[in-house]
Amino acid sequence: MAGTQLPNETLHAIFENLSASSLAAIVRTSHHFRLIAERILYTSIVISESLPRNSDDPASVHAAICASTILARPHLAEVVRKLSIRWHTDPGARDEYLPTVTPVLALLNRTLRTLQHLEQLELALGLVGVPLDARAVLDGCPLPALRGFALSGLGRGTLSPKLHAAPSTSVAISSFLSCTPAVSHMRLLDCYEALELPADALSALHDFRGSAIAAASVLPGRPVSLLGLVGHEFITERDLQRIASGSVPIRWLDLSMMSVTPILLRDISRHLTAVEVMKVKLALRHTLHHALSGISLLAGLSSVLGAFTALHQLDLSPTSVDGVGRGNALEESALCTTWARACPALRHVVFPSRTEWRRDSENADVWVPAAGATAAGVDPERDAHPRVRKRALWRGGGEAREGCTSRRVRGRG
């Protein structure tokens, strides 16, 4: 075959631009091509699959097949830079998944111990409430190159401790993070416990997403400038004080994964005074004057927004349109003007209707609809300073098509 006469560097450059399905086909054509193509395939592994119940056959789970393949071919471990696993489970009691996942997690744990060059690890396991300890997958896995870590679907989550005896995940997570010095992005969506970390751990962390309880234990003394909170509408004063005690101010605040009352927003503003970009899902029921209705409810936010003296981008698109109604252009423009009086730094607003407004560059008293009229909203990562944005491209989570990929890689024995 003429292609086999090309230098490996040339073949690698060609293969890098091919789809996963094309690479999978190339792997089967020759031993020479396989050695090059599989190194590209296994660089980024993304697995999204539905878990079978009551199955003790790991071969029925793509993640197990992929892990077995890496263990059988140790040279592949050197090239894996990203491993993302998302398991889809049925709602309700999930204990029936234990026979399926127990041997698979053991395989994944063995595999993780070999991935010394791994940079991104995303585990969304869908097993909240199942009596599983995070040690099952994280124990003994020092990952010195890891920069992005996301874990959800283990432990108790938001379930009542009186009804669910799922083991604590905080000890296992704390132990794991103590051995991952390079982590800069972290997402712990189901950890509602404080982590106990050495003072010198996570010294590079600048992006954290998780519960207020977890954030209050992680942020003190660390350079976190981008914070996303999940969970309840109430955050204690003590937790807010600790969240605000990082080594740098929080400038990007994402509150789109929790319902936020104006009262909570007011409490947050007392502590996080340097926020420049904020994304909020408002919970307006029973919080503002009963005589107000529709989009006029939002007028009551002026006094709250005025406390964010550095705020220049406000995104309310996660807020339900049903809760405030859909305003017309005149109402939205008037609200922008009102808010700007209270918050002079404000330059960019996205309403629950997803209509985007920007302050006119020539006349600060005039607000104009952004190009396209509606937009995807403000993304704290997308709109960050270029240096921060480059480091913030990774974010845990995100949906993938069901199956196993690396670029979408399917484990091959």
UniProtKB/TrEMBL annotation:
Domain F-box residues, every copy: 1-45
InterPro entries registered for this protein in UniProt: F-box-like_dom_sf (IPR036047), F-box_dom (IPR001810), LRR_dom_sf (IPR032675)
Pfam families: F-box-like
Name recorded for this polypeptide: F-box domain-containing protein
Lineage: Eukaryota, Fungi, Dikarya, Basidiomycota, Agaricomycotina
SUPFAM superfamilies in the record: F-box domain
PROSITE patterns referenced in this protein's UniProt entry, alphabetically: FBOX (PS50181)
